[in-house]
Design goal:
Strand content of chain B: 25-35%
Order of helices and strands of chain A: HHHHHHHHHHH
CATH architecture of the largest domain in chain B: 3-Layer(aba) Sandwich
Radius of gyration of chain B: 23 Å
Strand order of the largest sheet of chain B: 6-7-8-3-9-10
CATH class of the largest domain in chain B: Alpha Beta
Oligomer: heterodimer
Number of strands of chain B: 14
Number of domains of chain A: 1
Largest sheet of chain A: none
Shape of chain A: globular
Number of helices of chain A: 11
Structural class of chain A: mainly alpha
Distance between the termini of chain A: 22 Å
Number of strands of chain A: 0
Shape of chain B: elongated
Helix content of chain A: over 70%
CATH topology of the largest domain in chain B: Rossmann fold
Helix content of chain B: 25-40%
Radius of gyration of chain A: 18 Å
Order of helices and strands of chain B: EEEHEEHEHHHEHEHEEHEEEHEHH
Distance between the termini of chain B: 54 Å
Strand content of chain A: under 5%
Structural class of chain B: alpha/beta
Chain lengths: 249, 325
């Protein structure tokens, strides 16, 4: 491990992120639209205690921002490959693990930044976090989600040579993860067959934990959600790092 | 000049059935500018990628500055610098940021890093562009910045993969001057690959001619030319011309030209003309020139470098076509 190298690789990602402002705005526009239009539109047919539909899906939208920004960040490692910068990193006298750590920290930071911006949108529509402790727990959950999906993205990019596979991953990995996560619907009234898919989706536990922190409603106890997210983060880290270590030019 | 910094020992790299590098052994001395000359696809870049630890050789080994490329990758990486054929800069960072990033990846202490960066920006004449985003740079500027970056950690060996590919003649000459100056001032050993004959001729102390993954000849370019001996008479004719004289040292035919290698060409020329007249052969034109590396290449491989490349491009095209079917 080489801290200097990790720091500079992290800093590189931050600089690149700040320099692409359109990306930031673009990544926030879509969830904001869903939140306001779908949230308001379906409100009349939704009943769950005193929760409005817009409040119900707001945590799910945070999960979506984290999922999309984290996975697409990881997949951006393909850019490094295509524009040659990957070679510069690979011939440097630093371990591949340091490269993954630097990259992943950069991804988690930029992803968190976007999610926090979206959290401000959520505050604007009237969501209130009950206590500072709950806010800390919320940050922890967000970070766990980001770590897991950044490494899933890095894992994919370690085995992809170009962008042809990108839309495949969006359609067959990212979208199912998002739709199955319970961002749009409560989990308790689902048919049995769908439940199985929902339960193996790591984002389910993320969205449920976010909902617990933001609107004090959840399907699972918080410790189960945290445990699931930690296991997911660890497994993704191990697989992502191993795949990146054996990546070829 | 008998202090090898690089030793290649029967290096081989096979990609499935393709023998990209097929048993290359050579030694490169401290302070040399060494050229790997060959057409595209001859295996030059593969050799470089193996030497800079990006590819594992199928078999064989190489020792760089006393370190084994198979066993001691990090030590090898610390003592080499490399400028790849394709740019490998982050174009969303400035020139200065690219250098700084490199310096930190190689763990150069802050003061030294700053001082070296100033020095090198000066050397490649990019001091006034330091805070400009790399994506606005021209090809030549990028190449110069990459050379500066490759030197930042003061490597003992600098690899340059086709350093002037795709650059305009003026920038090429500029880069050649940099390379010579670098070698003179810093005593860094430079290994460059090229398919430009003039580049190898002007820059390199010694040249290895690489053809289909093997070394066909290795020496100084003067010695290589001497091996051909004498001068080359090129006769352009559409008829079959077989002068068959004992004083003709070598005959080569390609592209409607007959190349004869002879001593004292100016005297032999009139003899040749007489023979041609006797045999009623119609000669379009005749030129005499000292052997160039192009002739050396032709001599050792039986083809000019351009023909090799054309064939190779054809092969690739056929392969692609058959794959898409």
């Amino acid at each position: 491990m080489n801290l200097d190298a990790i720091y500079i690789l992290w800093l590189r990602e931050i600089k690149r992120f700040i320099r692409s402002k359109s990306r930031i705005i673009g990544s926030l526009a879509f969830p904001t639209l869903i939140l306001i239009i779908i949230g308001t539109g379906l409100n009349s047919v939704f009943t769950m205690g005193k929760l409005s539909y817009i409040e119900f899906i707001a945590p799910g939208m945070i999960g979506m921002v984290l999922l999309f920004s984290s996975i697409s960040f990881g997949i951006m490692v393909i850019w490094d490959r295509q524009f040659g910068f990957l070679k510069e990193m690979l011939v440097a006298p630093i371990s591949r693990t340091s490269i993954v750590v630097g990259k992943a920290l950069g991804g988690v930071t930029t992803s968190m930044f976007q999610a926090l911006l979206f959290l401000i949108v959520c505050f604007a529509i009237g969501i209130k976090i009950p206590s500072p402790l709950m806010l800390l727990l919320l940050f922890l959950v967000m970070i766990l989600i980001a770590v897991g999906f950044v490494l899933v993205g890095i894992a994919f990019s370690s085995r992809m040579k170009d962008f042809h596979g990108f839309s495949l991953i969006m359609n067959f990995v990212v979208m199912p993860i998002f739709f199955l996560s319970g961002a749009f619907f409560p989990l308790d009234k689902l048919p049995e067959w769908l439940k199985w898919f929902v339960y193996i989706d790591p984002l389910t536990y993320g969205v449920d934990a976010l909902r617990f922190c933001m609107v004090n409603t959840s399907s699972f106890p918080i410790w189960i959600n945290l445990l699931a997210l930690i296991v997911f983060g660890l497994v993704a880290t191990i697989i992502g790092t191993l795949l990146f270590k054996t990546t070829q030019l | 000049m008998s202090n090898p910094v690089i030793d290649l020992l029967d290096l081989k790299k096979y990609f499935k059935e393709v023998k990209a590098v097929d048993g290359v052994s050579l030694s490169i001395n401290q302070g040399e500018i060494f050229g790997l000359l060959g057409p595209n696809g001859a295996g030059k870049t593969t050799i470089l990628n193996i030497l800079c630890t990006l590819l594992k050789p199928t078999s064989g080994n190489a020792i760089i500055c006393g370190h084994d490329i198979n066993k001691d990758k990090d030590a090898v990486r610390r003592c080499i610098g490399i400028v790849f054929q394709d740019p490998s800069l982050d174009d969303q960072l400035t020139a200065y940021e690219n250098l700084d990033l490199h310096g930190r990846l190689y763990h150069i202490p802050k003061d030294k890093r700053k001082q070296k960066m100033e020095e090198l920006l000066e050397l490649v004449e990019l001091s006034d562009k330091r805070n400009v985003m790399v994506k606005t740079f021209s090809g030549g500027m990028k190449r110069r910045l990459e050379i500066a970056r490759g030197l930042l950690h003061q490597p003992e060996v600098l690899f340059l993969d086709e350093p002037t590919l795709g650059l305009d003649p003026q920038t090429r000459r500029h880069i050649w001057e940099y390379i010579e100056k670098l070698n003179r001032d810093t005593k860094v050993t430079i290994i460059l690959t090229t398919h430009y004959m003039d580049e190898a001729d002007v820059l390199c102390n010694r040249v290895a001619i690489i053809d289909r993954g093997k070394i066909s000849a290795i020496d100084t370019s003067t010695q290589l030319k001497k091996q051909i001996g004498g001068e080359v008479i090129s006769i352009k004719t559409e008829d079959e011309f077989h002068p068959d004289q004992p004083w003709i040292k070598n005959v080569n035919k390609h592209d409607g030209c007959i190349n004869l290698t002879v001593e004292e060409a100016d005297q032999k020329l009139s003899l040749l003309m007489n023979i041609a007249q006797e045999k009623k052969i119609n000669i379009d034109s005749v030129t005499i020139h000292k052997p160039t590396l192009e002739d050396v290449f032709l001599h050792f491989t039986g083809k000019t470098i351009r023909e090799e490349e054309a064939n190779w491009a054809d092969a690739v095209r056929t392969r692609r076509r058959s794959r898409s079917r």
